[in-house]
Amino acid sequence: MENNFYTALGKYRGIFAWIFSTDHKRIGLLYLMSIFSFFLVGVGIGLTMRFELIAPGTHFITAQAYNTLFTLHGVIMIFLFIIPGIPATLGNFMLPLQIGARDVAFPRLNLMSWWFYISGAVVVLTSLFTGGGPPDTGWTFYVPYSIRTGTNVSLAVFGVFLLGVSSTLTGLNFLTTIHRLRAPGMTWFRMPLFAWSLYATAWVQLLATPIIALTLLLIIVERAFGVGFFDPAKGGDPILFEHLFWIYSHPAVYIMILPAMGAVTDIIPVFARRTIFGYKAIAFSSIAIALLGYLVWGHHMFTSGMSDTSRMVFSLLTFLVAVPSGVKVFNWVASMYKGSIQLDSPMLFVLSFIFLFSLGGLTGLLQGALATNIQVHGTYFIVAHFHYVMFGGAGFAFFAALHYWYPKMFGRMMNEKLARIYWFILFIGFNTLYFPMFVLGWQGMPRRYYDYLPKYHTGHLISTIGSWILATGILLMFYNFIRSLRKGEKAPPNPWGGATLEWQTSSPPPTENFVKIPVVTKGPYSFREHA
Ligand code: HEM
Ligand SMILES: [Cu+2]
Fold first, then answer.
1. Which segments within 337-488 are labelled E, that is strand?
2. Which residues neighbour 2 within 8 Å (Cβ) at sequence distance 6 or greater?
3. Ligand 1 centre and the CA of 209: distance in Å?
4. Whose CA is nearest to atom 40 of ligand 1?
5. Contact 433, 388 (CB under 8 A)
6. What's this model's pTM, rounded to 2 decimal places?
7. Which residue puts its alpha carbon closest to atom 14 of ligand 1?
8. Quick check: 404 and 496 in contact, CB under 8 A?
9. pLDDT 10s digits, 74-90
10. Do residues 146 and 75 touch, judged by C-beta distance below 8 A?
């Protein structure tokens, strides 16, 4: 029998060999399983909401049920899917391989992070069936409503607290791993840019997440003991909550997007057959994004009550944080320029990522400008914008990376022809679903409404039809993931001709990753140089 981390025998058997494993590859796959299960639940809820919105008038969902649906959808997609997303799954699996290490620095802490994640998820889901019923506050848990509603907010925020602990520990683990466990010769500037992006992300995970964790605990304390931190009736300040919430939740969007950008940066040189353009600019722009990302949270609160000066400063800083993102897009395009581009499925997803992320990012600038912000605040324009960034951006990059690393993780190739078909369906479905929301929002359609005026009908109808197209693509993609586990062709160690270290070991790798720890003598993208 082949020697790889699937066949290796540890202390435990069966499912215990997984849920008690300290192998970063097994933990990465545990996360992958759990995260994608929750993703499918989130998609189901999204489709349900879209179905209710197919035409004006109430159909099968009450106003209260709609409130709980968008809350759940938001909490699941943000805290259970896209924030842990790439780092916990592909990051866990690939980081040690990419830097030539045998595991992460703290393998048991890594396992504990997964347990925190799964406990948090269970607690969040338990809140649906206990106490005063499913929370109805929106994923932002804004006070004073969240301290007054009778629904089960306390349990849900406690679940999110546990998820925060998980994310913080993962960040700590990755930081230590990158500092301490690089293979001989793997200097900082020979590190793959995916590893760099995880490094920048890990600082945000470590430094920003405790803020949301504590803020959420304050909600529980406030609900249980009525201390009055936030409740204006008791002299508290609801705006304080918004500040604390966004001091984490804006940097959190970089926890979502930085690893996505990192994965894209690793994929482009392989499929363009040239070295990356501007390696250092990309590495440092990740750090710049992570740092600047801390200073822009006020752009979520332009209509909440702030001095004009602070609003102008936050607006300016928001424009500044777009610069390093623009640097990256420029570098990606420059890397492809005059390359011999191969349009395999990972590259197709990368190209759609660049398009969708740019649309999401550029509409973000419209919201960063004070005047247009007032117009679009709280409308479907925002809903369109963040789906483009989080789903079209981080989500599509996640899909790209899964197609890219699938052979390494599972030792099989996916069906490439099918992949191209559903890539196209996903791209069309995505834009049909979300583009009309920009228009609806611009016309004044407010978000988080279960019903609307007849004048918005056309946009909503198109959007709902788009959701069905997108769902078809998602089903086909999962069919391919699952079918290829058994039926896919056997993967060679390096099917795409990649130059980073994970491709130098077998597919799937042995438990200790490398038979012999590699000695690194050159950079990670030694393809044809730029003239
Ligand atoms: C088939 C896929 C999806 C569909 C059909 C869908 C649909 C929707 C709909 C209808 C809303 C509610 C709009 C409103 O009433 O304000 C919504 C909100 C939201 N969605 Fe999605 N969505 C999908 C995937 C995603 C993904 C992948 C993410 C994140 C990565 C995401 C994140 C969110 C968030 C954060 C909200 C806001 C919730 C709130 O207002 O509290 N969605 N989505
Ligand atoms: Cu923000």
1. none
2. none
3. 22
4. 138
5. no
6. 0.96
7. 448
8. yes
9. 999 999 999 999 999 99
10. no
